[in-house]
Amino acid sequence: MTLVSIQALVDDLVRDKDQVIASPTRANAIDDAVRRYSVDAPRTIVVDVPGAGTTRVDLPTTWVEGESELQSIEYPVDQFPPAMLDSDAAQLYQTPSGLKLQLGFQPTIGEPLRLTHTAPHILDDTQDTIPPKFRRAVACLAASDLCGQLSAHYATEAETSISADAVDHIGKTERFRNRAKDLLAEYVRLVGVAPSPRTKPASVDANPTRTTALGFPRLFHPVRNWPAQ
Question: What single string gives the DSSP state of each residue in 73-129?
Answer without folding.
Answer: EESSSS-SS--BPPGGGEEEEEETTEEEEEESS-PPTT-EEEEEEEE---BSSS-B-
